């Protein structure tokens, strides 16, 4: 993943809920878009 | 014979060919396009998408006037239709759109050649038109499309027993019509003639109609089409069909013999790759006639490319158009890509069917866990105001990531509604992304929104 250029709406919601910013989470969506699943993966891995 | 040379020559002027030619011209390539028909536009514009949709709309309006208007308090006396006028309207639309391609070719500088094109060697195509000409090019793009498949035991005469092209131009409404094949082409044409008064029997060899469409949606479609008067018989094999005078006789395997005024054979389409001189350049097709290509749409010959129906895959106009853009852009070094996972498909019966991505059957087979969100059109205000409360939107999303994996819509304007789903999927959207997008009220698109909410069990207008 690369640094996010844009966070999808559901990703934005999740970021805020977890106190994260888009720059912290690697983005895998087209054109560097941060997907909901990117945040979910990030949070899951951070939890471990 | 006159010899001309271009940088790129496109063999075939259908959705693959004319789009490739236009995009190539836009990118500064000296391009020519060859087509054997008087009109550019290929199957889609001349004898496919466009004329069939014209007749579907005319017959639907007639059907609505007859059966639907009274619910709006509109009374009609002496309702009639004029088949000749419907056919004239259809022809006008085809002429306008094919004429549009001529105009675009002219404006963008695409050189058209009308006539049958055949490979002479791997950089020369001989065009046998009014003025035979040898067209040479650095690169040749084969876009020869497809044609209705024939079956040896169906004796087509192109009149009483014919294919989709024949069925688009019946001179009168057949009293009894037998359609062999319960795919989308067969069912669309069945709808047209059923609405105009034909008694239509659809014979399908499989145990369901519309293979490829999500099973649940196909079942709903089957029920609705039956209610509209189509006599659909699945798991029914045809032994033979032949003409006897002005009548057609269709024998069912191990069953009865049916008689009809006309028979439509619509069991599939086959690539049109024979008789274009592929043997002259040593290019072999697979058993079914499809040309094999690599990711760049290049054949086994360096200078010969192929796209559209003739390379197989989904035989859809927009798939061919997409390949055209990607193929030509790659020729000039652009890194454009083709996403075969997100190609919508639409059936223009009424209600329409729109789908994109994977069906439930495919997900189950692949062992992918998914969540399902459904919104019936009955829960949509706009659907009621339109008198179109039959139908549903189904969204399938990955159980873990919530990414949208497939969207299946049956209902009015499903073909238009599916575009939102395709866009969302192209952006890797989750069902929540669609749910968090504000949709205008009242619109049918709210049913998509509501189905997305339903994936997570938080639909507002359904329980």
From TrEMBL, chain B:
Pyridine nucleotide-disulphide oxidoreductase dimerisation domain boundaries: 343-452
Enzyme class, broadest EC rank: oxidoreductase
Active site: 441
Domain of life: Bacteria
Flavoprotein listed as a keyword: yes
InterPro entries in UniProt: Class-I_Pyr_Nuc-Dis_Oxidored (IPR050151), FAD/NAD-bd_sf (IPR036188), FAD/NAD-binding_dom (IPR023753), FAD/NAD-linked_Rdtase_dimer_sf (IPR016156), Lipoamide_DH (IPR006258), Pyr_nuc-diS_OxRdtase (IPR001100), Pyr_nucl-diS_OxRdtase_dimer (IPR004099), Pyr_OxRdtase_I_AS (IPR012999)
GO MF term (any one): dihydrolipoyl dehydrogenase (NADH) activity
Name of the protein in question: Dihydrolipoyl dehydrogenase
Native organism: Novipirellula galeiformis
Lineage start: Bacteria, Pseudomonadati, Planctomycetota, Planctomycetia, Pirellulales
Protein's gene: lpd
């Amino acid at each position: 993943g690369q640094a996010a250029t844009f966070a999808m709406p559901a990703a934005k919601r999740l970021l805020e809920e977890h106190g994260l910013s888009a720059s912290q989470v690697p983005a895998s969506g087209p054109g560097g878009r941060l997907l909901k699943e990117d945040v979910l993966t990030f949070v899951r891995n951070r939890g471990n | 014979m006159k010899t001309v040379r271009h940088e790129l020559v496109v063999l075939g002027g259908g959705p693959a060919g004319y789009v490739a030619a236009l995009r190539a011209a836009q990118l500064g390539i000296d391009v020519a396009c060859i087509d054997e028909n008087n009109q550019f536009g290929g199957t889609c514009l001349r004898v496919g998408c466009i004329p069939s949709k014209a007749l579907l709309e005319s017959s639907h309006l007639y059907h609505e006037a007859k059966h639907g208007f009274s619910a709006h308090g509109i009374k009609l006396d002496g309702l009639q239709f004029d088949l000749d006028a419907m056919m004239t309207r259809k022809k006008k639309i085809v002429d306008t759109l094919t004429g549009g391609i001529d105009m675009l070719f002219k404006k963008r500088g695409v050189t058209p050649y009308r006539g049958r094109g055949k490979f002479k060697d791997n950089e020369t195509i001989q065009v046998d038109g009014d003025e035979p000409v040898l067209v040479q090019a650095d690169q040749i793009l084969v876009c020869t499309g497809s044609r209705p498949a024939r079956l040896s035991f169906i004796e087509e005469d192109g009149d009483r027993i014919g294919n989709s092209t024949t069925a688009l131009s019946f001179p009168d409404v057949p009293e009894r019509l037998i359609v062999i094949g319960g795919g989308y082409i067969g069912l669309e044409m069945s709808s047209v003639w059923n609405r105009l008064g034909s008694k239509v029997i659809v014979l399908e060899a499989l145990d369901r109609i519309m293979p490829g469409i999500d099973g649940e949606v196909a079942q709903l479609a089957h029920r609705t089409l039956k209610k509209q008067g189509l006599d659909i018989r699945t798991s029914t094999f045809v032994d033979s069909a032949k003409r006897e005078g002005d009548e057609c006789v269709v024998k069912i395997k191990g069953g009865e013999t049916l008689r009809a005024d006309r028979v439509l054979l619509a069991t599939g389409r086959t690539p049109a790759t024979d008789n274009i001189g592929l043997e002259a350049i040593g290019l072999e097709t697979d058993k079914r006639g499809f040309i094999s290509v690599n990711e760049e749409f290049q054949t086994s010959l360096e200078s010969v490319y192929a796209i559209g129906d003739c390379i197989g895959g989904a035989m859809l106009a927009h798939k061919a158009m997409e390949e055209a853009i990607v193929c030509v852009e790659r020729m000039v070094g652009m890194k454009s890509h083709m996403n075969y996972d997100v190609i919508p498909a639409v059936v223009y019966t009424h209600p329409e069917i729109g789908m994109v991505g994977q069906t439930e059957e495919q997900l189950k087979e692949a062992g992918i866990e998914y969540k399902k969100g459904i919104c019936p059109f009955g829960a949509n205000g706009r659907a009621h105001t339109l008198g179109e409360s039959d139908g549903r939107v189904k969204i399938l999303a990955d159980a873990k990531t919530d990414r949208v994996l497939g969207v299946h819509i049956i209902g009015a304007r499903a073909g238009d509604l599916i575009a939102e789903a395709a866009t969302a999927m192209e952006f890797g959207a989750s069902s929540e992304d669609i749910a968090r997008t504000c949709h205008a009220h009242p619109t049918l698109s709210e049913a998509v929104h509501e189905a997305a909410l339903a994936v997570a069990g938080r639909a507002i207008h359904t329980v």
